[in-house]
């Protein structure tokens, strides 16, 4: 019942099939080779042309299977693994045609009825298939192209709109915590809330939280804030935004009428016609404090606030420019705060431990570490920012390595107390804050925070409503690309590294996973300072080719030259 076609050129598949017969569910290519003593470069070129050809005749949900001899693929699945430059670099080659490696397993010739391996170097004799691997590729979501986005909200009884910072366009209104969501972040929140409601009277107060906040955050460096400048009377149209005419009204990462002092504090210069300054909320703590100061609470009741918060931060594995924070607030009688903290922490620990054990099958250690015993230089970004808001008394840490120590990134929450005379001199307020995104990652084994924000349906389909499971990656061994950039820093100015990282996030669509300072040079004659950084690009869910990365690097050079006024070398 099968149709057999001979003399097919694998690099021009669509030429051999009528349009109505070009929708293949599977394409198999066992042990491709250019023939004779072709080197790795020629075989890479063969694979590249084959993948581009396959993309033209494969269904959207189809698979491409490529079997290679041991070591040829260049992935960690090869044992032993060849050096990258001496392999066929199959994952990077496939990425150029929009494919990701979704599975890899041993090629077992004996399980294929009638299969016989012949054709070694164009000769009619078998070749060794021991240790051979079958690589299974699927289509990737295309790289995103973000248009300017206007967000409309109600603020101080008025409807206002603002331009969303470009780095947050795909994250500002995702609704992960809404009732109809099956996102693991919501599931973690719901299960924690259900457990705590058995120990405390509990009240949710999420409904009154605004995306924008106004006012001063004591101790917080302004370069960590996403500033928004509103002028409700002169809100630009989307067309004006596309033409870049909104700079005078709305602020993203750079504004011509702003300056930054040596500490990163933003100064509004004279001549700026701005009605009010706002920023995307970096924390839910001010909302919790406002509720306490208004007296809008019940002593002994655990009040729960949750929602996304936004922070400019350096690019590190656990630094998130947006995540979902969950804050617990409880007012108790003076002298009983320690027992309240212990009760709250015990219930949080029990809930997280139970969730993790249900998902992974092994028991997790969770520690409560006092501020004095925690190395502040090794904090993840979540806790480092919280430390700026006010003094933290305890850190909630999950032990994620065999030694039992608390690795960077495993601190998922903090505890602090505060005395509010406006409430009652007899009451002490206990605050607890949890990073729901980091919790979901550690519980479900999600290795990259960016995966939580993917639009690929293969992520959410792994988490049925109300269920938490171990995550199985659908993009294995994604290729990484390294580019260096060096420049002269403007004389007399402190280099804003947070802005540098934020621009990298923006131009790459969060494809930059690491930025390292590899050289710093100062001319003795002029005092000019030069910096050299190494950027590593890698996607966790999409095909990323070397050509696309090169374009990102060029755009990055242009943006830092314009926005940070550096002189490229």
Automatic annotation (TrEMBL):
Residues 476-569 form the FDX-ACB domain. InterPro entries: aa-tRNA-synth_II/BPL/LPL, BMT5-like, Fdx_antiC-bd, Fdx_antiC-bd_sf. The keyword Aminoacyl-tRNA synthetase applies. PROSITE patterns: FDX_ACB. Its EC number is 6.1.1.20. One of its GO terms (biological process) is rRNA base methylation. The keyword GTP-binding does not apply. SUPFAM superfamilies: Anticodon-binding domain of PheRS. Pfam families: BMT5-like, FDX-ACB. It catalyses: tRNA(Phe) + L-phenylalanine + ATP = L-phenylalanyl-tRNA(Phe) + AMP + diphosphate + H(+). One of its GO terms (cellular component) is mitochondrial matrix. Keywords: Aminoacyl-tRNA synthetase, ATP-binding, Ligase, Mitochondrion, Nucleotide-binding, Protein biosynthesis, Transit peptide. GO terms for molecular function: ATP binding; phenylalanine-tRNA ligase activity; rRNA (uridine-N3-)-methyltransferase activity. It is found in: Mitochondrion matrix. Its main location: mitochondrion. Belongs to the class-II aminoacyl-tRNA synthetase family. This is phenylalanine--tRNA ligase. It comes from Aptenodytes forsteri. The lineage of its organism: Eukaryota, Metazoa, Chordata, Craniata, Vertebrata.
């Amino acid at each position: 019942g099968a149709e057999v076609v001979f003399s097919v050129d694998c690099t021009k598949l669509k030429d051999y099939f009528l349009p109505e017969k070009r929708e293949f569910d599977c394409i198999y290519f066992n042990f491709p080779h250019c023939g004779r003593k072709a080197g790795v470069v020629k075989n890479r070129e063969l694979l590249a042309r084959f993948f581009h050809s396959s993309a033209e005749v494969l269904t959207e949900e189809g698979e491409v299977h490529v079997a290679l001899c041991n070591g040829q693929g260049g992935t960690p699945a090869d044992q032993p693994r060849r050096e990258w430059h001496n392999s066929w670099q199959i994952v990077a080659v496939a990425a150029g045609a929009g494919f990701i490696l979704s599975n890899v397993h041993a090629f077992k010739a004996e399980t294929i009825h009638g299969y016989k391996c012949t054709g070694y170097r164009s000769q009619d004799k078998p070749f060794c298939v021991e240790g051979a691997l079958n690589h299974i590729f699927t289509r990737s979501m295309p790289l995103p192209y973000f248009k300017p986005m206007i967000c409309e909200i109600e603020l101080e009884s008025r409807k206002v709109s603002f331009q969303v910072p470009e780095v947050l366009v795909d994250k500002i209104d995702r609704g992960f915590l809404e009732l109809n969501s099956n996102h693991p972040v919501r599931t973690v929140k719901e299960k924690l809330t259900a457990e705590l409601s058995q120990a405390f009277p509990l009240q949710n107060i999420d409904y009154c939280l605004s995306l924008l906040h106004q006012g001063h955050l004591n101790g917080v460096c302004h370069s960590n804030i996403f500033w928004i400048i509103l002028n409700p009377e002169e809100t630009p149209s989307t067309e004006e935004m596309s033409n870049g005419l909104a700079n005078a009204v709305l602020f993203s990462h750079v504004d011509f009428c702003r300056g930054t002092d040596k500490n990163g504090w933003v100064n509004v210069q004279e001549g700026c016609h701005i009605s009010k300054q706002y920023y995307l909320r970096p924390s839910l703590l001010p909302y919790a404090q406002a509720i306490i100061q208004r007296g809008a609470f019940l002593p002994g009741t655990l009040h729960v606030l949750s929602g996304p918060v936004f922070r400019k931060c350096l690019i590190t594995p656990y630094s998130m420019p947006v995540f979902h924070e969950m804050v617990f607030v409880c007012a108790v009688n003076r002298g009983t705060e320690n027992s309240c903290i212990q009760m709250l922490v015990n219930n949080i620990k029990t809930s997280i431990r139970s969730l993790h054990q249900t998902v992974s099958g092994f028991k997790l250690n969770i520690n409560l570490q006092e501020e004095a015993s925690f190395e502040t230089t090794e904090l993840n970004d979540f806790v480092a920012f919280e430390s700026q808001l006010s003094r933290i008394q305890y850190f909630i840490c999950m032990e994620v390595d065999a030694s039992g120590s608390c690795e960077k990134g495993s601190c998922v929450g903090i505890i602090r107390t505060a005395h509010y005379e406006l409430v009652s001199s007899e009451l002490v307020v206990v605050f607890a804050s949890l990073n729901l995104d980091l919790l979901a990652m550690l519980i479900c084994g999600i290795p990259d925070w960016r995966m939580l924000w993917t639009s690929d349906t293969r992520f959410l389909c792994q988490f049925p409503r109300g269920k938490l499971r171990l995550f199985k990656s659908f993009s294995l061994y994604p290729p990484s690309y390294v580019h260096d950039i060096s420049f002269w820093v403007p004389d007399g100015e402190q280099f804003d590294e947070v802005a540098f990282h934020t621009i990298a996030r923006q131009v790459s669509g969060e494809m930059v996973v690491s930025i390292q300072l590899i050289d710093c040079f100062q001319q003795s004659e002029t005092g000019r300072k030069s910096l050299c950084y190494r950027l590593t690009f890698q996607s966790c869910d999409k095909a990323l080719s070397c050509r696309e990365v090169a374009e990102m690097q060029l755009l990055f050079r242009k943006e830092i030259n314009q926005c940070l006024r550096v002189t490229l070398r």
